[in-house]
Design brief:
Chains A, B: Acts as a magnesium transporter. The structure is a homodimer. Chain A has about 475 residues and is mostly helical. Helices cover about 65% and strands about 5% of the residues of chain A. Chain A folds into 3 domains: about 150 residues, MgtE N-terminal fold; about 120 residues, CBS-domain (Roll); about 170 residues, SLC41 divalent cation transporters, integral membrane domain (Tetracycline Repressor, domain 2).
Chain lengths: ~475, ~475
């Protein structure tokens, strides 16, 4: 929002004489230590010298690497040199705690300097009262823009958009636009396209800067504008916007309200964060970790956030155990069954997880949908059959030899084939069903799948054995 | 490379009268069917009408949704209307097979129209001989640029860069640069910054287009250039480049050779693909699926690509089984142990996977490194202890009641605590060690971890039981 953010930005390049990151991109330990020592000595000059000219991302990483108590001190010692944009680069837990510890006046001062998207990013983490208090102290235009953004739902495009943009009427010439840009102070720090709007702010199209520069000065904007069927609605989910950026290789995109009026612009750097976040969420969900867990969380917080998933799994584990319980007599009769049964269950689990991983990801990227679902279900069942037969031969031979009982080999082999076909089928059917039911397949697929592969594995193997050896 | 790609691009906007995607972003089945029917009827006019004006990404999705035999026919029927950039948007398997089926002349024609980064993307999938044949038929400047890109290692920045860029000497004025851009045909289709170079092509800095537009015409480029400590080396891994884009919110970045000469430019849209790919690779690796498996692969190909992982897991499953084998006598004596033992192993596996997921991802994003490793190992062990105790109480009570044997409850509870602490410890130590050894933690952590949690789980539970009930 302030124009001097730009001059600050321009000086950043030259100051990285001493590298602060190793070749893997991690901050040097010695650098972090040096800053920590300067903070301990309360040496503001030294802190500014070390961290004053860093890029906001580097400052963000530095904050995360400091001990929690040193973090507010760093901001205090940096004073005017601290760019609040750095707070958009740290983990949410770290940010929330820091914001609680900083005086309101400092936050107001810091937020005022930010682009609206960064300001929203910080304000949305505050509680209602504190947020209102800070908004009240901001200049009216900023306050209005931020309030409007904050009124959009969480994780919507409206929350992520920048409310400052460059827009012109359609009858301006290219030369006029270029002169206007050169002569107008306070334009947004970064922009990649000029929007063309009618008097009611309705979006007519956009002209990218490279196109603007390549066009004769006398040309009218209306004659070179690119119509934009690919605008983002402010209420759209940020993930939907991210897919649009990815699909059409966008660098920025107009955000419109329900009346098709231009209200802001989404930038690719914010979208990069969204894409990384969404991929991360899927990955964590598959691993049974909630999306917002961060490595800076405490032991208690982490333990508490992970236990629900373990409790759900505990129930399914007891359920599988009860299946085994049905065959206590059989196991007593032949202990080899107890030794071998985990093999059948775990191989089913592994094969099912392979299928599920592919399915969950393909659903997330919209590569799996109605039209090819049937083909893929068939493919997964057949892959399960093929690999089931291969594994059955290996397991059957090994188990048969180990316990000198060829019939046991045939039984475990058969159970293996049954379980791997089920694993393939349910590995894809479970995520598909959850997706149909509008549930997130990444979150719940795993627990259903393990229940199936464990239950089927134990039941097929122990059941076949009980039937065969009783009759035989 | 060709200037008319641009005019083609400008007309794309207006033609999406009928939407071809549903609100989730999937292609409408009816649309795909209509195209397939037109192809079956060999009706080129209808095909062009339906798909001629689509964005390259939409054409790419369309290709993937068609039956394999229809794909080359679509390209043939589209003729001049087919933009080869669409081939950069399809799965590798689909692309490789399509390229095999297309005549060389068509490929030459298509590649000639592409930006160098897209051309490289397509050429790198061809076999040596075919690639040489096509390069031979391209105009000399294109051939030289493409050959140079292809000489860089796979997955390097040099392969992903665009070799066309806008560069000026430092003594030009802003006005001169703006006029130069307006007057010079054949500039790259898209660019976000103008590079400033010395006569030997050594990179001095860059000026972003918005900055160029905001500066008075008389200013010299040398006075507004931003020095670039954040250039990418052509031999750098694409993932390294992606981290740089993410960290510093870049939209494009200069690529330099070992003598610091400007050789190309990396664009954020290519980096988006890299980021998505890398997150995907981690996710798949954790699920035991190789990175290049695609949903368009055949049953046999898929089965073959997944079996190695299953075989590795089979070995560890037999290893765990052999641990159970040590306690055959104990189990014979008390079958309840066989019923309960999978609970201990599987809860350890679940808890360990949570830790491992967080660790693998934090390593990939460089959030976990030397300085905080010790703190996190301690945290994970303590989280394991905390959740181990909670689960131990629940499992102990349930198991003790179920089998009317309180001592059995105590034993399974103790085993649970032991296994969950191990799960936490190894869940982070295994990825850390693999990372130290320069192996990819996402690929191999899972199999080591399951081995630990199964072995420890069975051994702790059965061993404790054997010791306790024999002595008792």
């Amino acid at each position: 929002m302030s124009a001097d953010a730009e001059t600050r930005h321009a000086t950043q390049g030259a100051d990285l004489a001493a590298p602060i990151r190793d070749e893997d991109g991690r901050l040097f330990h010695a650098f972090v230590e040096a800053v920590a020592e300067a903070i301990a000595a309360n040496d503001g000059g030294r802190v500014c010298e070390l961290a004053g000219d860093l890029h906001e991302s580097d400052v963000g990483d530095l904050i995360e690497n400091l001990e929690p108590d040193d973090r507010p001190k760093l901001i205090e010692l940096l004073g005017k040199e601290f760019d609040f944009a750095a707070l958009t680069e740290v983990d949410e837990t770290v940010r929330v705690r820091l914001l609680e510890e900083l005086p309101s006046a400092t936050i107001v001062e810091g937020v005022r300097e930010l682009d609206s998207d960064d300001a929203v990013y910080i304000l949305e983490d505050l509680d209602e009262a504190e947020r209102a208090r800070i908004l009240d102290q901001l200049p009216a235009p900023d306050r209005v823009a931020l309030t409007r953004s904050l009124d959009f739902p969480e994780e919507s495009a409206g929350r992520r958009m920048q409310t400052a943009f460059v827009a012109t009427p359609p009858f301006w010439t290219v030369g006029h636009v270029i002169d206007h840009i050169a002569d107008t102070p306070g334009l947004p720090e970064t922009f990649y396209e000029v929007f063309v709007i009618d008097p009611a702010f309705k979006l007519l199209g956009s002209v990218k800067l490279d196109r603007l520069l390549r066009t004769r000065r006398s040309t009218l904007m209306r004659d070179i504008l690119e119509e934009l069927p690919r605008t983002v609605r402010a209420t759209d989910d940020q993930e939907q916007a991210a897919r649009l950026f990815e699909r059409y290789n966008l660098v920025s995109a107009a955000v419109v309200d329900d009346a098709d009026r231009l209200v802001g612009v989404l930038m690719v750097d914010d979208i990069l964060d969204v894409i990384e976040e969404e991929a991360d969420e899927d990955l964590r969900a598959l691993g049974g970790v909630t999306g917002d867990e961060e490595i800076s969380d405490t032991v208690l917080y982490t333990a508490r956030s992970r236990i629900p998933w373990l409790l759900v799994n505990l129930c399914t584990a007891f359920f599988s155990a009860s299946v085994i319980g049905l065959f206590e007599g059989t196991i007593e009769h032949m202990v080899a069954l107890a030794v071998l049964m985990p093999i059948v269950a775990s191989m089913g689990g592994n094969a099912g997880t392979q299928t599920m991983t592919v399915a969950v990801r393909a659903l997330a990227t919209r590569d799996l949908g109605g039209h090819n679902a049937r083909r893929l279900v068939r493919r997964e069942a057949l892959v399960g059959l093929a690999n089931g037969v291969t594994l059955a031969l290996l397991v059957g031979l090994t188990a048969g030899t180990w316990f000198e009982n060829p019939e046991l080999g045939v039984i475990i082999g058969t159970a293996m084939v049954v379980n791997l076909v089920c694993a393939g089928l349910f590995g894809i059917l479970i995520p598909l069903t959850l997706d149909k039911l509008k549930a997130d397949p990444a979150v719940a697929s795993g627990v259903f799948l393990t229940t199936v592969t464990d239950t089927v594995g134990f039941f097929a193997f122990l059941g076949l054995a009980a039937w065969w050896f009783n009759l035989h």
